[in-house]
Amino acid sequence: MGFGENLRKAFDAFSTLKVVDKESVKTLTKELQRALISADVDIETVLSLSKQLESAALAETIPKGLTRKEHLISLTYDALVDVLGGKTIAAPEKPTSILLVGLFGSGKTTTCAKLAHYYGKRGLRVGIIAADTFRPAAVDQLEQLVKQLPGVQFYSNRNEKEASVVVRQGIVDLMSKGVHTIIVDSAGRSALDPELVDEVKRIHAILKPENVWLVLGGDVGQQAKKQASAFHDAVGVNGVVLTRMDGSAKGGGALSACRATHSPVYFIGMGEKINDLEAFHADRFLSRVMGYGDLKGLLEKMEDLKIENINTENPLEGPFTLQTFYTQLESTRKMGSLSKIAEMLGFGMNIPKHELEVGEEKLDKYKSMMDSMTKQEKRDPEVLTTSRIERIAKGSGTNESDVRDLLKHYRQLKKMMGQFKNLDEEKLKNPKGMQKLMKGFQKPKKIKLR
Ligand SMILES: Nc1nc2c(ncn2[C@@H]2O[C@H](COP(=O)(O)OP(=O)(O)OP(=O)(O)O)[C@@H](O)[C@H]2O)c(=O)[nH]1
Ligand SMILES: [Mg+2]
User: Fold this and answer.
1) Atom of ligand 1 nearest to the CA of 189
2) Check: CATH 3.40.50.300 for 97-289?
3) Which ligand has the nearest atom to the CA of 108?
4) Domain coordinates in residue numbering, the chain
5) Which of 32, 143, 373, 379 keeps 20 to 30 A from 210, CA to CA?
6) Looking at the predicted structure, is the pLDDT value of residue 354 above 60?
7) What is the pTM of this model?
8) Which is nearest to 231 in space by CA: 269, 190, 200?
């Protein structure tokens, strides 16, 4: 089970909490402790967090206008945000150079491509230098990834074994192509040994990078602390990318360990695909984990899609028509799976996957059925009568059950989007709004889709 699911389970205890007394607060903190310890957050942090919560929750006076339960929820939220990163610093918007370092298999090469994609979409001219001359297949791996990134320049030299020489050549080549942001993939080693340190230092002397980011797998948990400080002392790291945060139960430990070493976590890797990279913000991350739904994150992803010029509309604006539904499915297919989007919205755990995934074939079918509908029907499919459903099925070479299936699917998504219509960023930021939100979303399990 991933970190998020463990923590979410602990938060389920909130919805069943009737009275806030000594006993119930203890039960709640026990659940939280369990989740945090299994995420590999260090015991000291966990214990001090629980103590702080217990005493604050049972304090004689609580802020005006809040129930004790609301007070406890907001305390827990604030305390957890603090453990996972506090007020996070945003990644640089226009980096000129990034050197990625890290041990074997931490995710450097994948992250290199993901970052190129991320900054490329934000209008920067990005180039990558393949400076892993240690592992024979490294250049090929990176080249394959770059093929998915039109517009991103790439430099490699398979005949040169000295990484710093490749970097020097790469800088000249990429600069001549008008590249603004250079990202360098370096070789890993099984440990931070003198060989790795020397190599990174030689590259550093040539590139003089503005950013040296340590790439760490979330599965290292608390170990992140040791690695981050060792790399920092040896080669001067000024940021961290945590990968495999999608699958690792220990991601929370890795985050809190980085927090302890004051290494800002700029990005988290949430999958193997090129766009499975997210700018990290502790509060956003946590609100998603807690099941609030990460509206801001979703909108940011949509913004990215607009940059890519894919057909998108904001489903939270205007009426949710059948056309909006279709556009939504189409663009979410491009972003990744719909279940991922649903997870961002805080429903992910509670909706069967098959209800959210839609294949190319099904999408085509939906399209031809919609082509047989009138404008008005597309605007409001609830006007469809049985005889019209028959006609549409005939006209599109499908069955009536297919049409009904489309309508059912539409209603499900409409309902889901309806839940988020009245939210805005301010509500997510302001603690009062957060509590209101919490009231509405404490029990996502009860949202019926059928
Ligand atoms: N699930 C998941 N897998 C990831 C993520 N990032 C990287 N991976 C996978 O982790 C494995 C190692 O990634 P690489 O990018 O090759 O790691 P590396 O640090 O370049 O490895 P070396 O060059 O051998 O040191 C690959 O199978 C990636 O697909 C992530 O965020 N989530
Ligand atoms: Mg690599």
Assistant:
1) 25
2) yes
3) 1
4) 3-84, 97-289, 295-446
5) 143
6) no
7) 0.69
8) 200
- In degrees and rounded to multiples of 5, residue 447 shows phi and psi of -70, 115
Task: Decide if pLDDT at 410 tops 60.
Answer: yes
Both tokens assigned to 405: 């299936």
186 annotated to a ligand binding site:
yes
Average predicted confidence (pLDDT) for the chain: 80
What dihedral do alpha carbons 331, 336, 342, 344 form, nearest 10°?
-110
The alpha carbon of 110 and the centre of ligand 1 are apart by a number of angstroms equal to: 6
Would you say 16 is a known binding-site residue?
A: no
Max mean pLDDT among 21-25, 201-205, 299-303 falls in 201-205
| H helix or E strand, kind and range, residue 131 | strand 126-131
The ligand 1 atom at the shortest distance from the C-alpha of residue 243 is 31
Using the 8-state DSSP alphabet, how is residue 91 labeled?
A: P
CA distance 275 to 420: 24
Contact 217, 105 (CB under 8 A): yes
Ligand 2: distance of its center to the CA of 243 in Å? Answer: 13
Q: Whose CA is nearest to atom 10 of ligand 1?
A: 107
Produce one character per residue of 398-426: b if its CB has 16 or more CB atoms within 10 Å, e if not: beeebbebbbebbbbbbebbebbeebeee
| CA 147 / ligand 2 centre spacing (Å) | 16
Q: How far, in Å, from the CA of 10 to the mean position of ligand 2?
A: 36
Selected from 3.20.20.70, 1.10.3720.10, 3.40.50.150, 1.10.260.30, the CATH number assigned to the domain covering 295-446 reads 1.10.260.30
Closest CA to 403 of 378, 449, 369, 358: 369
User: Are the beta carbons of 106 and 243 closer than 8 angstroms?
Assistant: yes
CATH number belonging to the domain at 3-84, selected among 1.10.3720.10, 3.30.9.10, 3.40.50.410, 1.20.120.140 = 1.20.120.140
- Distance separating alpha carbons of residues 289 and 103, to the nearest angstrom: 28
Strands 277-279 and 265-269: antiparallel
Could you give the CA distance from residue 252 to residue 152 in angstroms, rounded to a whole number?
A: 33
Counting Cα atoms < 13 Å in the Cβ hemisphere of 56 gives 19
Ligand 1 pocket check: which of 111, 132, 134, 272 to mutate, most ligand atoms within 8 Å of Cβ? 272
3-class SS of residue 277? strand
Longest dimension (CA), the chain: 77
Please tell me the least confidently modeled range out of 53-62, 188-197, 199-208, 275-284.
Answer: 53-62
